[in-house]
Structures are given as structure tokens and as C-alpha cells.
Amino acid sequence: MSTSDESQTGSLFKQLRDIQYALDRSAIVATTNASGRIISTNQKFCSISGYSASELLGQDHRIINSGHHPKEFFRDLWATIAGGQVWTGEIQNRAKGGHLYWVDTTIVPFLNSRGRPYQYVAIRFDITARKQAERRLREQGTLAKLGEMAAVVAHEVKNPLAGIRGALQVIGGRMPHDAPELAVIDGIRARIDALNQMVQDLLLFARPTPPTMMATSLVQLFEGTASMLSHDPLWADVEIVLPSDGPTLRVDAAQLQVVLSNLLLNAAQAIGGHGRIEVTVESDPDWCEIRVSDDGPGLDPEIRDRLFEPFVTTKHRGSGLGLATAKRVVEMHHGTLTVDSSETGGAVLVIRLPTH
Ligand SMILES: Nc1ncnc2c1ncn2[C@@H]1O[C@H](COP(=O)(O)OP(=O)(O)O)[C@@H](O)[C@H]1O
Ligand SMILES: [Mg+2]
């Protein structure tokens, strides 16, 4: 070999090393043999997957399989690269620590003299942030659609419901006070109220309207809400203790009534219609704190962290919108809604509202 050949080979090596260096700096790289066993990885692969190089070498990519993609997805991938074609796509993987990540992936087969792949190089880029942003956008789109739907439901369902409820009231009013049918009428009215509440939740959650603040006596608000709920047979054996005095706040009374009735309803359901629910209120010049406590089983630890997310429910027919809506309304009043546990093990929901 002449010196000029040697220096040419040397500079070719250097160029290759430079390219490899640049690639390792920018991409997650792994090489596998023809049967898919990992024969080399780079630092980026180790750091995103959480596995060390020695844990990865000799394994196939099932080690980071998240289970997200159907079998056909990988069958198609393998058919493409085994046939000598480049495969590109987006893959969700699972890291050693259990968390999921997304990679934009290109797999290039290297062919031997007979045109058969003898190894594959996979070059990947982390696109987890983009995937998350896309999901958020999709969720917002769903929420906007839900808002439109809720508006239609509100119009088509709420008004007739109010009509039926009014008619029932008239019929009930014409009956003798001891008519046994009055209990039936109360039952129907309670169901209408529950339906109304659900529509109201959906509407408030999906289409939050800014509150119209008016001076409102909290005690009156509590009493109004409790008497509205008391038609439901669920409340027949519930002792509900309300504070005898409390401040007057500037709030949207109708919206806060939805919040309170949601909390009271949850409490009554938690105690299975038998027991005690207590509402207390304390205020100082800055904050007013309303606590709704029950002596039920308390919050299920499985959902405690996600309690205020929409559609989180442990109930057979629950919508999971009650607390999400309540939190939204309270936050629009510049307050907070949180949970606490009582000494007796029951649940305590805490509303804090600014007093001015
Ligand atoms: N007072 C309470 N005691 C125990 N669990 C509660 C209480 N309030 C709410 N929860 C839990 O929070 C979940 C979500 O409540 P919510 O958003 O009102 O939806 P839903 O009532 O439709 O289930 C309930 O399914 C229940 O598991
Ligand atoms: Mg509820």
C-alpha cells in the first residue's frame, strides 16, 4: 500500500468515525444481527431505555416492547426489513423503569453479497414530547365537541325536563296531603332532579361560563341545596347537619349550588343513604372554608390522585363528572377544592373561597 493510499484510508476512517460521532450525538442507535439480537447500542439508547449496554446486548427489541402496537405492526416491520427495504415509523416503547416513550424510527437493512440482510441498523429520535402535545390537542378537540353536544343536550333535554317537573308539581298540589301517590310523585321528581344535575354537570364542565357574582348568604345556599336534594328517597335516612350561621359572599349562587349538591350527593352515596353528613363553614377576612364531611368508607386510594379528573368514577352508573365540574367552578371563583380525611375515616371535601 502506498503512503498516499494509507493516508486516504486513514482519512476515510476518520470521516467514518466523525459521522459515527455525529450520529451517536443526535440519535438513538442500535445494531442487530439478522435474527434481531442487539449487537451494539449507543449511550442515547441506554439513557432513554434505562437499560445498560450489557443488559441490552444479546436481547431483541421485545425487551422494550410496550404492548401498544398490534402484532401485525411488527410483522409488517419485519417483512419490510427482511425483504431488504428500509422501514420508517413511530413506535411506543417501555423503559426499564416502566414509563413509556415514543421514537421516530428508521431501520436500515445491510445486505450481503447474496442480497440477504446480515444486520440492521435502527436509528431513532425521541418524539415523546410531540406525541404528548398531539394527545393534548386531541383531548381539547374532544372537549370542544363535548361542549357543542352539551349545549344541544341542554336545550333539548333541560327545558322539557323542567316542564315535566312543573306539571308534576301541579298534579301533586291537587292531591290530598295523605295520598299514597305523593311518594311516587316525589320519586319521579327526584329522578328528574338527578337527570337535570347530570346535564348541568356536563354543561358546566364542557362549556364553563364565567360566574355571575352576586351577594349570597351561604347558609341560605346550603339550606336551598339540601331541600332541593331531600326529595330523593336516597336522603330519607340521612342526617344532614348544616351550620346555623355563615358569611355572605359574592358568588354565582346557581353554580355553587351545583358544586354543593355534587358534594352532598357523593357523600350520601358514600354512606349508602344511612348516616350523617356535616357541612361546616369558617371564615376570616381573606378566606372562607366550607367542609363537607361524611362518615362513609372514605376515598378509594386507587383513584385518590385522579379524583378531580373527568370520567374518574368507582360507581356502576357514575359519570365521573361531579368532582371535575365542582373543581372547575370553584377555580373560576378563584378558590380551591381539595380532599381531606376525617378521623372517622370518612371523606372530607374542602372548598376554599376568597371572601372579597
Ligand atoms: N364522599 C365521598 N366518599 C367516598 N368516595 C367519594 C366521595 N366523593 C367522591 N368519591 C369518589 O370520587 C369518585 C368521583 O366522584 P364524581 O366526580 O362525583 O363522579 P361520580 O359520582 O359520577 O362517580 C366517586 O366515584 C367516588 O369513588
Ligand atoms: Mg358524583
Structure, briefly:
With 356 residues, this protein is an alpha+beta fold. Helices cover 45% and strands 24% of the residues.
Commentary on this structure:
With 356 residues, the chain is α+β, with helices and mostly antiparallel strands. The chain folds into three domains: 3-126, Beta-Lactamase (2-Layer Sandwich); 129-207, Orthogonal Bundle (Helix Hairpins); 210-356, Histidine kinase-like ATPase, C-terminal domain (Heat Shock Protein 90). It is built from nine helices and twelve strands. The strands form three sheets. A five-stranded antiparallel beta sheet has the order 2-1-5-4-3, with helices on both faces. A five-stranded mixed beta sheet has the order 7-9-10-12-11. A two-stranded antiparallel ribbon has the order 6-8. Strand 1 (28-33) and strand 2 (38-41) form a beta hairpin. The protein is elongated, with a radius of gyration of 31 Å. Magnesium ion (MG) binds next to helix 8.
Q: What key phrases describe this protein's structure?
A:
9 helices; binds adenosine-5'-diphosphate; five-stranded mixed β-sheet; Helix Hairpins; alpha+beta; Heat Shock Protein 90; Beta-Lactamase
